[in-house]
UniProtKB/TrEMBL annotation:
PROSITE patterns: GLUTAREDOXIN_2 (PS51354). One of its GO terms (molecular function) is oxidoreductase activity. It comes from Lachancea fermentati (Zygosaccharomyces fermentati). The lineage of its organism: Eukaryota, Fungi, Dikarya, Ascomycota, Saccharomycotina. This is LAFE_0E06898g1_1. It comes from the Eukaryota. Residues 21-82 form the Glutaredoxin domain.
Length: 109
């Protein structure tokens, strides 16, 4: 098992809410804006890959793919499982059910 896979597993299992993210990714910026809007940014662990070399970024994305089957940015994890991406955030926003969903997963009280 590579160090990248080990790190991906450790990150996912050690935090209730995780976002695989990169500062250069517009969808990641959007997801972070949702967390900011609802005041829950401090509850989400952001694994920021943009600080790594391009090669390491690819290795981390591949490691997350190996661990959970997804390498999209952003990928949002809840309780160790993939919750979704920005697509789910948009879907819940459009339907007017985002706040309800954030309560359901435990991000909002």
């Amino acid at each position: 098992m590579s160090q990248y896979v080990t790190k991906a597993k450790q990150i996912i299992s050690s935090h209730k809410f995780v976002q695989l993210t990169a500062s250069w990714c517009p969808d990641c910026v959007y997801a972070k804006s949702v967390w900011n809007k609802y005041g829950v940014t401090d509850k989400v662990y952001f694994f920021e890959i943009s600080g790594f070399s391009r090669d390491e970024q690819a290795k981390y994305r591949d490691a997350f793919h190996q661990v959970c089957g997804v390498r999209n940015l952003p990928t949002i994890f809840v309780d160790g499982s993939v919750w979704g991406t920005e697509r789910e955030l948009h879907k819940f926003e459009r339907s007017g059910k985002l706040e309800e969903e954030l309560k359901r997963i435990g991000l909002l009280n």
